Amino acid sequence: MALSKIIAEGVDLTDDYAFTGTVTGAGEITASTTAPSEGGAVTTNVVQGLAKAWVNFKGTGTVATRDSLNISGLVDGGVGVFTVSFSSSFANSDYAAVGTGSEKISGTVGLANRDTTVRTLSTSSLNVYNYNSGNKDFISNYVATHGDLA
Structure pTM? Predict the structure, then answer.
């Protein structure tokens, strides 16, 4: 059923209205769109707060991406070293990147003395390093980035 355009003077805006279905053409989120915080005391910039790229990948055996956003490639650079490339580049190399990983050993995950570091940030890629008393391939690796896309 099509919905007709209603002129504001013809609607009592003090009433509550419920709608179910799909709304199309209702607007778009722009770089300046804000939303209230959970408590409603402050607002946050919606676009600024989103992860611009993330990846979940297998770092042992044949390296493979399990799932991702804005990732164009994953290269195994040797034991415990990976390069993650972005589909859309960042505006500069000052974005924030965080990573973690885990190594499954005898049915346990993430034992002590394991470290995943994200570094060598460029606008088009970053490097992930896994360490366990020396470089080590981890079965599970997770990286997320926040910043401005070009």
Answer: 0.72
